[in-house]
Amino acid sequence: MVSHQVNVTTTTTNTDVMASLNYLPFENKSVDVCLMAHVLDYSADPHWLLREADRVLVDDGWIILSSFNPISLLGIGKCTPIFTA
Fold first, then answer.
1. How does residue 39 score in pLDDT terms, banded at 50, 70 and 90?
2. What Gene3D superfamilies does the entry give (predicted)?
């Protein structure tokens, strides 16, 4: 059970936070869960993103990572050369 709650806004229930991934607009140790869906695949510096997520996570917080399967058809296509006629 979450013992605290932080609201980004009080005007609506559907709120998005748009920010740079490199500098999240949250205080240190203020987030319980950080969901990173297909973010590391497209980052120039994925290690920095993980450090930034760690900065905002509370102690014993959770990082949930989602990524592409490297042995899927899409993943294998990235590893094989493309031949052109």
1. confident
2. Vaccinia Virus protein VP39
